[in-house]
Amino acid sequence: MSVAMDTESTYSGYSHYSGHSKKAHRQGRDRHKSPRSKDGSRSEKSVTIQTPPAEPLLGNDASRAEEGQDDNWGETTTAITGTSEHSISQEDIARISKDLEDSVGLDCKRYLSLTVAAVLGLLVFLTPIAFILLPQILWRDDLEPCGTVCEGLFISVAFKLLILLIGTWALFFRQPKADIPRVFLFRALLLVLIFLFVFSYWLFYGVRILDSKDTNYQGIVQYAVSLVDALLFIHYLAIVLLELRQLQPMFTVKVVRSTDGESRYYSLGHLSIQRAALVVLENYYRDFTVYNPALLTASKSRAAKHMAGLKVYNVDGPGNNASGQSRAMIAAAARRRDSSHNELYYEEADHERRVKKRRARLVVAVEEAFTHIKRLQAEEQQKAPGEMMDPRETAQAIFPSMARALQKYLRTTRQQQYHSMESILQHLSFCITNNMTPKAFLERYLNPGPTLQYDRDRWFSKQWTLISEEAVTSGLQDGIVFVLKCLDFSLVVNVKKIPFIKLSEEFIDPKSHKFVLRLQSETSV
What we know:
This is VANG1 protein. By secondary structure, the chain is an alpha+beta fold. It contains 13 helices and 9 strands.
C-alpha cells in the first residue's frame, strides 16, 4: 500500500536525522564519483550544449533565487545551473550538419542566380549597341548614308537605354533581405521572357541583316530602336507583376506566437506563401514584443513546487507495484488543485506590488540623476571649453546613482538579460546628447519594446523554417495555415480571405425632412 502526504506537515520529527543521513550519503557518493570524473571514462549518449556566459540560462528556480542574488551589476548576466536544458543526440548533430550543408547550398544558389541575372542584363544592354555598330564595322563602305532621321534615332536609343538602365537598377539591383527556399516565380518568368525575346531578335538580325549585309542603315537603326521599346514595355510588365499586383489587400493573416499566444493581424495582397512568410517576419521584428523565456518559467516552477510538496512512502515493502504510487500521486495532486488558484492570485498580486514599488523607486532615482545633470550643465557653462565633459563621461558619472534601482527593476520584470551595462550607458549618453527627459530615458525599460529595439546578437534568429502543406510557390488562399519555426518558438499563420462587400445606396428625399409647426393663437389663460 502507498500513502501520499505533504512533506511540509508530516514527519517533522525526523527532519534532523534525515538531513544528516542525506548529507553523509551525498558525501559518500561524491567520493565514489570523483575518480571517475578525473579519468573522464564516463560515457554518455547525449551531448550537452551550454550557452555562453553573456546569455544566461534561466531555470525554473530563477524567481526563487532572485532575492538572494548580490547587488553587483555583473552578476545579472551569469547563472549557475546543475544541468543544461538544451541537449542533443547524435541524430541531432547529424541534422545540424545537414542544415549547414543546406545553407551552403542556398548561398551557392543565390550567387548563381545573381550571376545569371547580371549576365542576362549585360546582354540586354549591349544588344542594341551591337545592332548599330556591327554594320559599321563589317560593311561600312556598302552602307547607305545616314540622314537626319537616322541621326535622331541615335539620340532616341541613347536616352531610352539610360531610362531602362535606371529603371532596372531601381527594380532589380537591391540588396536581398532574405533567402527564400524556392525560386521567385514571376522573376524567373521575366528572365525567361527576356532571354527568349533577345534571342529572337538576334536570330532575326543574323538571318536578315548579317547574312544578306543589308545596306539600309536607317532600317537597321530603326530595328534597334524597336528592340529598346520592347524592353521598356517588358520593364513596365515587371513593375506590374513584382510591385503593383501585391499592393491591393486581398487576405488577412493572423500571426500567433506559440509560446505566449501573442498575436497580430496583417493585410496582404496576392503573394506566394514564401513571400508572405517574409512579410510576416519583417512585421514580427517590428510589432511583436521581444521573446522572453524567463516569463514562461513561472507556471513550470509553480507546478514543480506543487509536485515537490508530495512524497510517496512505500509501507508495504519494495515488492509493491509502482502503479499504486502513481495513482496516489494523482489523487493527492487533485486534492491540492482546489487551492492552486488562490496561490496563483496571491503570487500575481505580490508580483504586481513589487513591480510597482521598484518602478516608483526607479522613476525617482532617474529624475534625481537628470536633475544632477542640469546642475552639471550649469557648472560646465562657467568652466573653460577644454574642461567640459562629453555626454559619455556625464553618463558614467550619474549612472551609479540609478544603477541599483534599475538593476532591481530589471530583475523583477525579468528583463536583465536584454540590457547590458554598456547598452544602458549608450542609451543614457544618447538621451543626454539630445536633451531628452527622464520619461524618454525610461521608456525603453518600463515597457517591453519590439524585437528590433534590443541587441541584435540577443534577438536575431539566423534561420527560420517554413512548414506548409501547400507548395511554398503557390499563392495565398482562404484557410491556408503555415508555420514559421525557429529554435525557441514558432509563428503560426492563419490566412483568411477578405470577404466581398456589397455596398448599396439609398436615396432620401430632402422634402421628407420638412414639417409644419402650427401655433394656436388662443390659449386657456
